[in-house]
Every structure is written in C-alpha cells, then in structure tokens.
Design goal:
binds UDP-4-deoxy-4-formamido-beta-L-arabinopyranose, two-stranded parallel ribbon, binds nicotinamide-adenine-dinucleotide, 13 strands, seven-stranded parallel beta sheet, alpha/beta, Rossmann fold
Length: 343
C-alpha cells in the first residue's frame, strides 16, 4: 500500500533538509508548518532541488481540526499517513527562560494535540526531534543514551517531557513506535547552497554567527569563554552536517516501520571541535577572515559535550560521513549566495 509521511515543521532548517532526503528516497511527504520561524519560499526551493512538487499546508500543530483534516485527506488520496516526523517547535534556549509558558505550550501541548490526532487517525509511528540538551551537565562523556537526563532550561525540559510522554504513549497502545532522535549540533547547509539556516535577528548559535561575520553582516564574533578545561580553553561541541542529520530521519522511519516501542538515539559524529578550531577551519576552507574577541563565559554553557553515536550506527545503520570542512564549505556556499537568508 502507498503511504505518506507527515512532517511537522518541514519548512524549518532541519525539516527542509530532511524533506529533500525523503523526496529523494521516494517517500510521499506532507508538510505542516505555521511559518512562525520559516517561510513558504523554503518549500519552493526544495521543490526546485527535488524536481518534484511538495504537498504542504500552512497551520499550527495545536489546531486539532487541521490535523484531522490532513490525516483524512491523505487517507482519501489513497496514501494514509504511516509515520509522523515531528520537528515543529520553538528552540531558542534564552527565549525559553524568558517565556517558559510559550515553550511548554508550543512544544509540549503541541505534541499532545498531535498525538491525540494520530490516535484518532490510527497513526502509530512518530520520529521526534529531541536534543542532546536533555542530558545537561555531563556525568561522563561521550554521552550515551543511558546517561541521566537533567535539562538545565525550559527548552530542554520540553524535550525531556515529550520524550516521557512518548514513552507512556507507546506503553499504552500495541504497535506504537516513538524514535527519539537526540541531535547534537547541526550546522552547514545543502551542498547546492539553495537551502540553509536563516535565523531571524541576531543568531543565538555559533555557526550562523561565524557565517554572518564572514559575509559582512556582523562586525566580529564574540567567543564566550577562553578558560574552559578544553584543548584551547574554548567550548567543545559535536558538530554534524545537517544533510547527515537529514539522512538519519529516513533511517529512523525505516527503523520505526520495523521495530515497535520507544527508543532514543544520539545523532552526532562522536568527535568534539572547539570554537577556535571551528573558526580556523572555516577560515582555511573559505579564505574569509573571521575577526573575534573573547568575552566571559555564557551563563548555562557546558565546557564540552559530544555523542557516543554507536547505537545509531548499529541499529539505524546511520553514520555521519561529512567532515567539519564540508560543513564550513556548504554553510558558506549558502550564506554567501543568500546573505539575507530567504528574503
Ligand atoms: P526551525 O525553527 O528552523 O524549524 C522549526 C519549524 O517548525 C519552523 O519552520 C517553524 O515555523 C515550525 N513551527 C514551530 N512551531 C510550530 C507549530 N506550533 N505548528 C507548526 N509549525 C511550527 O528549527 P530547526 O533548527 O529546524 O529545529 C527543528 C527541531 O529540531 C526543533 O524541534 C528543535 O527543537 C530541534 N532541535 C534543533 C537543534 C538545532 O541545533 N537546530 C538541535 C536539537 C534539536
Ligand atoms: C556552541 C559553542 C558557545 C555563540 C544550543 C542549544 C542546544 C541545541 C543547539 C537545540 C559554545 C560558543 C556560541 C557565539 C560563542 N539546540 N559560542 N559565540 O550551546 O551547544 O547548543 O544549540 O536543541 O539546545 O543550547 O550551541 O552554537 O549556541 O554554541 O563562543 O556567538 O559556541 O559558548 O561553546 P550549544 P551554540
């Protein structure tokens, strides 16, 4: 039987790259996005890259009627939804501290509305965008999936809460599957430079800040902390190419179709890179200078964190293949060709 995949938040940074991978793999994706942090232009570009139309609907995952109608429409079209890939959510840590209720409402309440609609439509599989941030202060590194969960901010709490809700949901019904993907630090862009990360306003994250300095939109990078117990005193993270992360979702859907129950997988490379190492690699790959200054540590930051991705390597058959050089080259291709993002 032909089936569809519903992608919530499919116009976002990770969602758009994943949408492209699903189209390339021959799936029938349907996107729902409220464009709160994206725009329809993203989907037009994905259509161009894929050489195929994208089915999409503007709307919010907290709108139960809309979700019912999407599931019903797919059924009438002869390709009922078999699995939901759930990206839709808010993701700025600082905003989550300032506006916690917005985060609990969008990320937790939104996920509950979605699961209830899935129940009504008898859709039993979901792949959820979780985050390495659920682990919090490392007890040991690399993080394995059994590391204790101790999120340090409301955003991280929403991810841990939805993981728990999904565990209970799987427990309560036969044949239900929830694959929780704990992403490390996705950066870069599709190698064509056609789609990429387009933060609104001042970037919160390191890589888009670097590319915006390189393209002349910002004067210099502020490096938060130079006295961490790391290779050069700056923070260490496990950066992975967004296209590798996108492929991980196709593998996760295949896994969900074969294996019922709740499971969590780290998606990372297993290698740490410091802020200075990333800046220097970016400069070497692109030939662009990135002026920087050192500031105090950013409150709440960890010194270092990276993944043990062996469970995903073995059980999903997934491995990150692209290098930090690839991430810098592709991220620069996107930023230099689209200095103002999708505008
Ligand atoms: P993004 O903001 O680019 O994408 C999220 C998309 O969801 C946007 O297109 C937005 O408009 C949409 N959206 C938000 N709330 C919605 C709602 N209520 N209804 C419908 N659409 C809604 O973010 P991203 O970086 O692509 O992240 C995708 C997911 O991955 C998020 O859940 C995020 O928390 C998670 N994640 C991201 C990172 C990262 O570093 N980017 C790391 C770990 C986890
Ligand atoms: C990386 C390193 C900073 C900006 C955050 C969220 C996490 C996840 C990914 C969703 C750190 C340093 C940064 C800057 C800097 N998102 N830095 N100057 O903090 O690992 O993770 O995004 O789930 O939840 O917390 O990523 O890119 O913000 O920072 O020196 O302007 O770069 O101190 O060492 P982080 P990041």
């Amino acid at each position: 039987m032909t089936t569809s995949i519903l992608i919530t938040g499919g116009a976002g940074y990770i969602g758009s790259h994943t949408l492209l991978e699903f189209l390339a793999a021959g799936y029938r994706p349907i996107v729902v996005d409220n464009f709160g942090n994206s725009s329809p232009e993203v989907l037009r570009r994905v259509e161009k890259l894929a050489g195929a139309p994208v089915r999409w609907h503007e709307g919010d995952i907290r709108d139960a009627q809309l979700l019912d109608s999407l599931f019903e429409q797919a059924r009438r079209d002869g390709a009922p939804v078999d699995c939901v890939v759930h990206f839709a959510g808010l993701k700025a840590v600082g905003d989550s501290v300032a506006e916690p209720l917005e985060y609990y409402d969008n990320n937790v309440h939104g996920s509950i509305v979605l699961l209830k609609a899935m129940d009504r439509a008898q859709v039993k599989r979901i792949v959820f965008s979780s985050s390495a941030t659920v682990y919090g202060e490392p007890v040991s590194l690399p993080y394995t999936e059994s590391h204790r969960l101790a999120p340090a901010n409301p955003y991280g709490q929403t991810k841990a809460m939805v993981e728990t809700i999904l565990a209970d949901w799987c427990q309560a019904g036969a044949g239900r599957t929830a694959v929780n993907l704990r992403y490390f630090n996705p950066i870069g862009a599709h190698p064509s430079g056609t789609i990429g990360e387009a933060p609104r306003g001042r970037p919160n994250n390191l890589f888009p800040y670097i590319t915006q300095v390189a393209v002349g939109k910002r004067e210099k990078l502020s490096i938060f902390g130079r006295d961490y117990p790391t290779v050069d005193g700056t923070g260490v993270r496990d950066y992975l190419h967004v296209s590798d992360l996108a492929v991980g979702h196709v593998k996760a859907v295949e896994y969900a179709q074969a294996t019922p129950g709740w499971v969590a997988f780290n998606l990372g490379t297993g290698r740490g890179t410091s802020v200075l190492e990333l800046v220097h690699t970016f400069e070497a790959v692109t030939g662009k200078k990135v002026p920087y200054e050192f500031l105090d540590r950013r409150p709440g930051d960890l010194a270092g964190m990276w993944a043990d991705p062996s469970a995903a390597n073995e059980k999903l058959g997934w491995r990150a293949t692209r290098t930090v050089e690839d991430m810098c080259r592709d991220g620069w291709c996107w930023q230099s060709g689209n200095p103002d993002g999708y505008v």
